[in-house]
Please model this.
Amino acid sequence: ATAAALHLETAIPNFLIHEHHTYAIKKWNRELCIQDPQPVNGFFQVSEAPGIGIELNDEIVMRSQRVEIK
Model:
């Protein structure tokens, strides 16, 4: 969600403040993606990678609880 929000915010000329939720700094949340956008000195660096610049960490996804619906 952070990566998608950052890309949208960079397209808004008068955008001012991005709120960063405390869940975004928790270990269990940070390890889910290979990239981990976090602010440095109060500022984010927006990825120039394809898409929104985030890849899921397959190892973490496979360890996560899953529900199969038939």
